[in-house]
Every structure is written in structure tokens, then in C-alpha cells.
Amino acid sequence: MSIYVVMVVVGSLFLYGGAEGLVRGAVSVAALLRISPLIVGLTVVACGTSLPEAVTTMIAQLTGRGDVALGNILGSCVSNIGLALGLTIVIIPLAISSSIKKRELPIMLIVTICFVALVFYGVISRVAGVFLVIGLVGYVVYQVIVSRRQRCEGAVASYSWVVSIAFIIGGGVVIAIGGYMLVDGAIGIARIVGISERVIGLTAVAIGTSLPELMTSIVAASRKNHEISIGNVVGSNILNVLFVGGMVSSISPITFSSGAFYFDAIIMLAFTLLLIVMAFRVEVLSRVKGLVLLFGYCAYIYAIAV
Questions:
Q1: What does the DSSP assignment read for 232-265?
Q2: Ranges of the chain whose pLDDT falls below 70
Q3: Which terminus of the chain is less hemmed in, N or C, by CB atoms within 10 Å?
Q4: CB atoms < 10 A from the CB of 177, how many?
């Protein structure tokens, strides 16, 4: 048990250090390219913080643990909104831009509905995976087009191109290592306690792989980079489905216990809709809304763990 606890602690420290480097590099790149930090948050940062989900889901799937693989994707999306964003808002209320409300949140809703439909279908096949990857390509192309329109003049880069990219790559690698260590430790502890693979995927693994989003969002918010903070969470949920789910299932179809994840898929959709409702006609997500998200997440964890 002690070795697993050490892995969790060390992994958490790696996650914080990696998040710090990733945010520093991302903000600098946004200034160098003169584009909105939101675009960087939705793409570069979101991709970096989604690396643990991608690595863990692929390993789980290739080792025949489909329940852990799917549970990680569903649980991570719920954790990103309920835990990562909720806790961040409780600590620092976040300003939310109209572009997120008009473009990114609807995209996240569409992607979520599609994935929930696949869960109810009973299997995420290679064909479905290919379509998800095509959706990923379309999403990236869309963000490139938007980035050309949203020029951010006057921003001063903190670092050169080489240093900025080094921060991003280094931060992403450290996050992946930290996430891997934390997940292994969490799974080890969960197995000793005696928890099913479905619950392990939805809780221990999902929370572990969502910690990069949590750390990155908090660090970004503390540096007053609210667009990166929110964009990281929204972008990560989109990439969890299109990138992680699409990549894994296109290589190996994700099979799972039929009917076991219906409740979790509905919860994933419910949190997405809740965030959209909360963001409607407001400019700042208040601490009260953060508490609602956090309380809802705790209630969900209690419901599946008991």
C-alpha cells in the first residue's frame, strides 16, 4: 500500500510542475502568434492535459480492460467539469467570453451527444472511431480558421519560440509521467480496497487523469489567464471524445459491459448541459456555481461508489 501512496504523491507533484510549464509556454506562444489565448487553451493546452487520458485509455483497451477504458473517458469528462472547473471556480471565479458560449460549448454538447449515443449502442467500433477522428480533424481545422480571425495585438511574449515550445513539450511530458504514476498508484490502492473495474475507471483513473486539467486550470486562473483555464476544460472534453475515444477505438473497438455505463453517460450529458445553462447570459462563473458543480460531482461519486 505504501508504494502506491508514494506514487500518488509524486505523481501529483509532477502534475503541478508540468501544468506550470505548460501554461507558461502556452501563454507565450499565444503572444508570439498574436492569437487569442482561448485558441491555445482549446488546442495546445487541452491536448497536453489530455495525454494521460490517451495513454491510460489505450493501455487499458489493449490489455483487455474495456470497462476501464470507457470509464476513463466518461469519468474524465465528468471530472473535468464537476471537479476541475468546479474547484477552480470556487477558488477563483472565472470570466467566460461570448465566443466560448456561442461556439465551443455547442461543439462540446454535440460531441457529447454523439458519444452518449455510441455508449447506448453498446460498442464503439472502428468505423465509429474513424468518424470521431474525422471530427477531430474538422475541429482542428476550424480552430486554425478561427485563430486567423482572432488576432491579439499588443501581447508581449515572456519567452522566445524555442523556450516556449520547450515549456509546452516538457510540461506535457511531465504531466503524462505524473498522470501515469498517479493512475497506477490510485488503481493499486483501489484494488486493495476491492473496487470493480468500472468504478476504478470512473473514479480513481478518471480523477487521476483529470488532475492535469485541474492543476492547469487553477494555475492559469491564478495568472488571470481565464480563457486558457476554461478553454482547457472545454477543449479537453472535446478531445477526450474525438482524440482519445476516436484514436483508441479506431485501433481496437472498445467493448464494455452492456448497460453498465448508461447512468454514467447520462451524467456526462447532464454536466455538459448544466455548464451551458450556468454560462447562459453571464460574464463570470461565480463561486456559487462552482460549488454546485463540485457538489454535483461529489454526489455522483458517492452514487457509483456506494
A1: HHHHHHHHIIIIIIHHHHHHS-EE--TTTTHHHH
A2: 1, 49, 148-157, 197
A3: C
A4: 18
- Hey, what's the cell of 112? 457529447
**Burial classification of residue 61, based on how many CB atoms lie within 10 Å of its CB (0-12 exposed, 13-18 middle, 19 or more buried):** buried
- Cell of residue 209, nine digits: 487523469
Per-residue model confidence (pLDDT) at position 105 = 93
What pLDDT, on a 0 to 100 scale, did the predictor assign at position 150? 62
The reported pLDDT for the residue numbered 85 is 92
pTM of the complete model: 0.82
The one-letter code for the residue type at 208 is G
What are the structural domains of the chain? 2-305 (1.20.1420.30)
Buried b (16+ CB within 10 A) or exposed e, 284-299: ebeeebbebbbebbee
SS3 35: strand
Q: In the numeric block, which cell numbers belong to residue 11?
A: 505523481
